[in-house]
Amino acid sequence: AQRVTQPEKLLSVFKGAPVELKCNYSYSGSPELFWYVQYSRQRLQLLLRHISRESIKGFTADLNKGETSFHLKKPFAQEEDSAMYYCALGLGGYNKLIFGAGTRLAVHP
Amino acid sequence: NAGVTQTPKFQVLKTGQSMTLQCAQDMNHNSMYWYRQDPGMGLRLIYYSASEGTTDKGEVPNGYNVSRLNKREFSLRLESAAPSQTSVYFCASRDDLLSYEQYFGPGTRLTVT
Question: Which of B41, B33, B45 has the alpha carbon at shortest distance from B6?
């Protein structure tokens, strides 16, 4: 069965520290993976998609098919990065998103 | 543009009552979605509509019905609410011709007592 696992409920770091939010997936096909983010009092929004291979707000994510992972990384965390981050697996022509349970990132001054 | 709007923001129901959650989008998107989010879990797809006039089941459709009223609106109905349906409900839409990105509404917090 398709599944997305985010093992950490909470990740707490200090400003300027590196951040890695973990995501592992279970899917036998070729995965389409996304990171969505929800800032306080804002809507859930797309952060990045694995195929685009771009850096958004300093975040990058690399798909590792061997380890079935799609970890989100940022070299230097900022306070404004504090939010809930969700990893998602896209199926059925992007009509079905399987979400992980989410990781709350708290960046302290 | 308001994007995706949902009404109501909050609702409390008694077991067995019915209600309809409303969702509308002003982005001319073809595809629309309903999700639920329970504490400690990710969003789970209830139903989706790939185009006006079509609907399909997602992961957790039991206990729900949907209507794609027109291109803008996609409603979710609970015919006989149960405490297990206490959740936060999110609507989303996507321009399937242009993008993989889903745009989300602000959510409806539903409590069934």
Answer: B33
